[in-house]
Amino acid sequence: MAEINKIAVLGAGTMGMGIAWAVAGAGKKVVLYDLKQEIVDKTIARIGKGLAKAEEKGQAPAGAKDFVTGNITGTAVLEDIKDCDFIIESVYESMPVKKDVYSKLSAIVPDDVIVATNTSSLSITEIAAIYKKPEKVVGMHFFNPAMVMPLIEVIPCLQTSEETVGVVMELSKAIGKKPIKVKEGPGFVVNRILLPGMNEAAFILQEGLATVEDIDKAMKMGAGWPMGPFTLCDMVGIDIALEVCNTLYSETGDSKYRPALVLKQYVRAGWLGRKTGRGWYDYSAKK
For residue 109, what pLDDT band results from cuts at 50, 70 and 90? Predict the structure, then answer.
């Protein structure tokens, strides 16, 4: 396969921003797509702002902002990705949404281009079945914040070719990441372990055994976690945590994965974490 120099990132949300940042920082050209141009422009501006601060603090070399943002082009026209060498899909974690995207990609993307999904829990086999070349579809699961976290879970589905897996493993290394190969299964490795931990923390809170702050403190000081489960859940998004719990529960049928009621209530209230200014903690004063 030809060298991969230009990569499309679909979805300019939290994960799409981090992925675009990481890929562009590795010297690759990035086409960042979302439904509205203002969303894309805002995301690219956030990347620039983050890098400018890092430069000021000496956490990034001089010129990092211009280098990274100079490698990113934003668009709200899906057809603009047709000349990309590789596609990383990171749209909203919903099977209907992803199926709609892959149906559209089938009419745009050249047959030899790999399409990697950043899904954290959905069936890649089901996603691949929608695409014209299912052997070119693979899981490429980044972790938040994607520009910092080194791990990528590379997940072949039932249809993925070995050639596709090999290309993604090498590309992951080329952008400075540490890939591991994981068989397809609900939650893969990290979320299969991590999400039940966040969910159990919600059950402990629901039962009144301890406060949000003390549960976080307990896991940091007693288990060596770098941050508590509620702090992490707010960063990931409580809605995303609930979606993954629901997927684990529905895919396995195991009651240990059933989401806590308080998790559902927070989502119904619109308290989704940092992105909405309120989750397990209140971030409104920090905005």
Answer: very high
pLDDT in tens, 216-262: 999 999 999 999 999 999 998 999 999 999 999 999 999 999 999 99
Query: Which residues are bridge partners to 116 per DSSP?
Result: 88, 138
CB 103 within 8 A of CB 130: yes
Q: Give the distance from CA 12 to its chain's centroid.
A: 10
Q: Which residues contact 89 (CB under 8 A, 6 or more apart)?
A: 10, 11, 98, 101, 102, 105, 115, 116, 117, 118
- Catalytically annotated residues: 120, 141, 153, 191
Phi/psi at 99 (5° precision)? -60, -40
Cβ-count burial 258-284 (b if 16+ within 10 Å, e if not): ebbeebeebbeeebbbbbbebbbbeee
**Do the Cβ atoms of 38 and 86 come closer than 8 Å?**
no
Residue type at position 281: Y
